[in-house]
Amino acid sequence: MQLLPAIDDMPRPDPIEDDLVAFKFIDKKLLAIDPELFRSKWFDYRMMTPLQATRHYIEAFGEVYREYFAVEISKTASRFIKVPSIEQIFEGLAADEDKHKITFSGMWRGRQVADAIGMPYKDYIHTVMGLRLRFWNHNHLPKASHLYKQEDVEKTVAKWEEMQAARLYLSDDPGYMIENYRGIAHQDDYHEWLFKQASLRGNPWYVLATFINQGRLPLDKVEARFDPDMVERVHRYIH
After folding, report:
1. Residue 23 has pLDDT above 80, yes or no
2. What is the DSSP string of 159-201?
3. Which of 76, 190, 206, 220 keeps 20 to 30 A from 64, CA to CA?
């Protein structure tokens, strides 16, 4: 079986190009926050530059916006509404248009809040937009700049803990699979995440065994972490 490329061997986006865009359109105070977010953001985004991650946030915003539009306003019209795309935003930035500058800054700030909490972007946007709509009395949906009000963010943090208990959240990045493990901090952080996810379940031994069977968690870390009784339970379900 051919191994997937390790995290440290994967191609990187051009950081110089990304930095130029960020420095031109994002406030320096916001830019200063990003280095602090690489160890807290959701695992799929940890090997991205802030700009590349913001692109993913913009895509997620468009998906969630259409979903809410279909429910709150019109299912039929939701197929035709225009949500700012990445291409449109960047064309607007190149044309020095203020509305696209505001949109881009709002997306950047919202992405940073999601990173600070550690949520996947679509889950963050869906949750915080739902909270905002509870007190929304406009004939349009919230914009990107409405999705990081302090009171909504605080409620989103609490909701995120509930969401983790309700379902498993796992990374799709192949760099976190055991065959690609290189002892990188992000990989070790992900193993700690898996331990936490297992602890939230009523059958943690089975969940741990499932992670091992899936190639997500190394057996030796499980054996070093738990007492012999737990390890023996885990072994029952390893195949």
Report:
1. no
2. HHHHHHHHS------GGGSGGG----HHHHHHHHHHHHHHHTS
3. 190
Which two tokens mark 110? 């919202």
In this structure, what are the phi and psi dihedrals at residue 58, rounded to the nearest 5 degrees? -60, -40
Position 207, amino acid: V
Torsion of CA 53, 55, 57, 60, to 10 degrees: -130
Segment 177-219, tens digit of pLDDT = 999 999 999 999 999 999 999 999 999 999 999 999 999 999 9
The predicted model scores a pTM of: 0.88
Residue 93 sits at φ, ψ, to 5 deg, of -65, -40
Quote the CA–CA distance of 209 and 234 in Å, as a whole number: 5
Q: Cα(162)–Cα(160) distance, rounded to whole angstroms? A: 5
Residue with tokens 């406030």: 27
Query: Rounded CA gap, 101 and 76, in Å?
Result: 30
Residue 205 Rama label (left phi>0; alpha psi -120 to 50; beta): alpha
Q: How far is CA 151 from CA 25, 37, 115, in A?
A: 27, 21, 17
pLDDT, one tens digit per residue, over 127-179 is: 999 999 988 877 788 999 999 999 999 999 999 999 999 999 999 999 999 99
Over residues 102-126, the mean pLDDT reads 97
**8 Å CB contact between 117 and 152:** no
Q: Which amino acid is at 115?
A: D
